[in-house]
Known about the structure:
By secondary structure, the protein is α+β, with helices and mostly antiparallel strands. The protein is 34% helix and 21% strand. The chain has five helices and eight strands; from the N terminus they run H-E-E-E-E-H-E-H-E-H-E-E-H. The relative contact order is 0.24.
Amino acid sequence: MRRLFVIASVLILSACYNAPDPGKTVSGGGPGMLAGAPAQSFDVRRTDGKPDSLARHRGQVVLMNLWATWCPPCREEMPTLERFAREHAGTVVVLGVDQGESADAAAAFARERGVTFPVLVDEQQQYGRAYAALGLPTSVIVDRSGHIVRGIDGPMTLEQMRDAVAPALKHGAS
């Protein structure tokens, strides 16, 4: 029985976090994660019920973060994402995309942690499948023209977030 518990625990944790090197560029997976490819977008709702999608933010640099409330690395990364969003307000749009949970669960999580950036609810996990997320959290940096700059598997530090968006901010700056 103990052995079964250990195996189940390892599987659950590896499903949530599958990145031995936080902040690395994702090179595998589907075409949705290839640098330079058009970013795929799906119509979903925000926790406030308003419709939103990645495509609605075309013309802006976007850091899209796929996460879930049950994921420990996602929970740990959230304050850093919030700090980054506040620090880059007006230059980078941060979109949190909750994977596979209800709007109520995502809203409660965001409220408890003081999240001010938009939280989208992707109950069908369309974004996770399209971007071939290897685990959670997964982030995708999208430039102003709607193309992927890079994908990052695993949680990032504030410095890694800054470094990840820098090329998109430089390219096409007005």
